[in-house]
Amino acid sequence: MLGENIKKLRKSKGLSQEELSIKLNVVRQTVSKWENGLSVPDSSMLISLAEELDTFVSELLGEPVTAPATDDLKTISEKLEVINLQLAKRSMTKVKTTRWVLILVCVLIVMVFVALAVINGSYLGWNYNNPELAVAGTILHGFEFVFVRVAPIAFLSSVVGIIMTYKKRYNSSLICE
After folding, report:
1. Which InterPro entries does the record cross-reference, listed alphabetically (predicted)?
2. Residue 14: φ, ψ to 5°
3. What single DSSP character describes residue 40?
4. CA 25 to CA 17: how far, in whole Å?
5. Which of 17, 42, 147, 166 sits in a 20 to 30 Å window from 30, CA-based?
6. Per-domain boundaries in the chain
């Protein structure tokens, strides 16, 4: 909701993301991330943002505008905390999905290597006078030739990616504490 409100108010003021970013001394991509819900401004930036858009922080956060309460800062920080927790949860879901995809890639590579080891180049002994066997054998040989050269790189890259997702999870858990 915060991102939608920022975008709606920015457009109603006739400002582009670039113009708003200049007024706030941030890069345009930061405004884009706010509007797309990929990040949230901190509390001081939220106040500056509300000032630039001639509105109240509570309106940015989706609350109806009422008389300012004495604990506005506490309410703002609670809402920002909820939004940050939602972003962290979304980020962890992406990390877990990426990790499982990389694990699947490693498993598939191992399975293909096992399959290639089982056939042990038996296609090399086929009768290549038969055109169908010649085509199939050539395709198998070409696949094996390319796979044996590319798969180790893909496997190592996937393992490094898996390790990085665990490091990211560890670092994220430190940040959340």
Report:
1. Cro/C1-type_HTH, Lambda_DNA-bd_dom_sf
2. 75, 25
3. -
4. 12
5. 166
6. 2-63, 83-176
Alpha helices in the chain (DSSP H): 2-12, 17-24, 28-35, 43-52, 57-60, 72-119, 131-176
Q: Are the C-beta atoms of residues 49 and 24 closer than 8 Å to each other?
A: yes
**Separation between Cα atoms, residue 163 and residue 166, nearest integer Å:** 5
From first to last of its 177 residues, what are the pLDDT tens digits of the chain? 788 888 888 898 898 989 989 988 899 899 899 888 888 888 888 888 888 888 888 888 877 655 555 567 778 888 888 888 888 888 889 999 999 999 999 999 999 999 988 988 788 788 888 888 889 989 999 999 999 999 999 999 999 999 998 875 555 554 444
Q: What residues contact 168, with CB distance under 8 A and at least 6 apart? A: 95
* C-alpha to C-alpha distance for 5 and 153, rounded to whole angstroms: 46
Residue type, 84: N
Q: Whole-angstrom Cα distance, residue 62 to residue 75?
A: 12
